[in-house]
User: What shape does this take?
Amino acid sequence: MSDSYKQILDRKYADEMTPHFKDSIELLNDVLDYGTFLLPRAYGSSPRDIKAICLIFVQFRQFLAHLDGAAILTGDGNCISAILQLRSLLEIALTMEWILKADTEAKINHLWVANIRRRKQWQSIPIPGTPEAARRADAANRISLTPEQLNEIQNEVRQLDNVLAQPEFAGINLKFETDYAARGFDRPWYEVYGSASQPRITIRKIADEVGRLVEYQNFYSSFSGISHGGDMWKNIVFGGEAIWVNPVREPQDIPRTTKFAVMLALRVFRMLLEQYRPGEIENFCRKYVNEWQRRFLKEYSVTITPQDTLI
Assistant: This one.
């Protein structure tokens, strides 16, 4: 394996610095571990309906996956990549809160229909004569199925159609289908939910409706710039005629990164507990005070100043 240019990527330096933030890293992993036990317990206490499936198995499971990603990345001092995980954590936290605030059943049904439709569209690609086979002819031509496999897929698509035809989903499916026929793709489920009764729903509007617009403005927009490679100031520093490039690992940001991830996790855990295990909230609060609060509020005095690279 070839060596890296140390002023851009110094793995040894990051490994030496991360132990200074051991409490923060361990806190994030402890909170993640709690979440992994909460998932099956929340579902076990739920009515095991579509709402529980969407909230617990779709959104919360994905939240834990991103929380795990943040823990792995911060443990290696790669805090700038962890920002992609923070952005996803924030989006899921906002969306879950928005779903639970009002009109929960309708919102859940839109999320459900969106997923059923996506499955149907992909499964329909190898079925001759379907709109998806025509739209994605190149992909359809590369798929070779036995008659048995094709029959199995056709049966699944028929079952998905039966689900979409159910009274509570048929009208929602029609809203999606109208857009799909015109655009060739489905809009995000929350946009379709709002299309009939109010202006276009966005993550920004969702944040505003749950009273977290300031949080969105302070974090989500900047996180998006980093996620899409459009944030100049996170990557370079101008000094007269010189340009300094920041190293790709920034272990000095571990406390800030882990604290934001933990804050969102505590918020989401509380939402699930309120929905499915309200009797456990007191124990959850006690656990925070006894096991997590000191590390969450800890301020670090370690100063890390990585060498920047002059271009």
In short: Residues 306-311 have pLDDT under 50 and may be disordered. The radius of gyration is 23 Å.
